[in-house]
Design a protein that fits this description.
Blueprint lengths: L4 H27 L2 E3 L2 E3 L2 H35 L3 H23 L3 H17 L1 H13 L1
Antiparallel strand pairs: 1-2
Length: 139
């Protein structure tokens, strides 16, 4: 099912901010350290990128609710572009379900694996997103 242009633009912008804020946090967390009086510390922008990611994620969940009703569910029911849609939907759902675990898991090993999986699925989600867009443009 076709998505109305304003909704599509909002979704693309939100997805872009969500991806960039998550990628920025990942990059700062893994590759950037600053010196302070006790040695190495997080870059100050790291916490702000994470806060931005959390805020945009809430907005993105709202948009996903709209897309579920207007686009995802009807398209799945009629089988339209199902492969590229599921290729995008499954990692989105995975990250939506693991996000609360990042806040509430107390077991350090489980939290580490959840953070790692959430991060890498989030970084590589651009591939299914682009694939779905390319298939949309073809048909």
């Amino acid at each position: 099912m076709k998505i109305a242009n304003p909704t599509r633009v909002l979704f693309y912008i939100s997805f872009g901010f969500l991806f960039l804020s998550g990628a920025t946090f990942f990059f700062l967390d893994h590759f950037v350290r600053v010196a302070d009086e006790w040695g190495e510390a997080q870059h100050p922008a790291q916490i702000w990128s994470l806060r931005c990611h959390g805020i945009v994620a809430l907005w993105f969940l709202f948009l996903m609710g709209i897309l579920w009703v207007k686009h995802i569910w009807p398209s799945l029911r009629i089988g339209r572009r199902k492969a590229s849609g599921l290729f995008l939907l499954l990692p989105l759902l995975f990250n939506m379900l693991t996000a609360p675990a990042l806040l509430y898991l107390t077991d350090e090993d489980m939290k580490h694996w959840t953070e790692t999986l959430h991060s890498y699925v989030g970084l590589f989600i651009i591939i299914p997103f682009a694939t779905h867009i390319v298939f949309r443009k073809r048909n």
